[in-house]
Design a protein that fits this description.
Blueprint: H1 5-16, E1 21-25, H2 33-42, E2 47-51, H3 57-64, E3 71-75, H4 80-89, E4 93-95, H5 101-109, E5 114-115, E6 117-118, H6 121-129, E7 134-137, H7 145-153, E8 160-163, H8 172-176, E9 184-186, H9 192-197, H10 200-211
Parallel strand pairs: 1-2, 1-9, 2-3, 3-4, 4-5, 6-7, 7-8
Amino acid sequence: MTLAPIEASRRTRELCALAPIVPVLVVDDVASARPLAEALVAGGLPVLEVTLRTPTALDAIREMSTVPGGYVGAGTLVTPEDVRAAKAAGATFGVSPGATDELLAACAKENLPLLPGAATASEAMRLLAQGFDMIKFFPAEASGGAPALKAIGAPLPQITFCPTGGVSPQNAETYLKLNNVLCAGGSWVAPKEMVKAGRWGDIEALAKAASQLGKI
């Protein structure tokens, strides 16, 4: 039985509602995967996106998926092969920079909830027509930032977005204040230098601060 887009969007929406920021992670060393996930979850960011940009990404997903209270997804899904590998590694959801019919079909077949990417109204409308109403706005800043996303949302109030790409502590609140934004993806909560040095307490502190964004 395949996962219908409406159900996929419902599941990804539930995950996106758990915290205002979804850490977008590039894991170079699998040894850092579990303590990194533990620090982020302890800081109040339970939903984690591990991008498939390094040779260790799938092993990192396997390690992180064992952390209590965490929900680990695979980002940068581009091909059906990516989808199958992510699901086998223990990913509970997927994130893609864009969307193709082949990718959507693979996620449905593997029962992997997907947060598909769109950068324009036409791309968002195409996904909406297929049943997706929870969408990643990517690349957010390069596509016009919060003003562009606000403009897209006016004629498409049925769609909720997770902007990713260029989101930072300086502009995250601007995105989170938009009516059509549920959460945002950001990489600043896990700086490479902190991960490399094993500064898990500092990363937990960054996560705690990010978990409060949009709540005031």
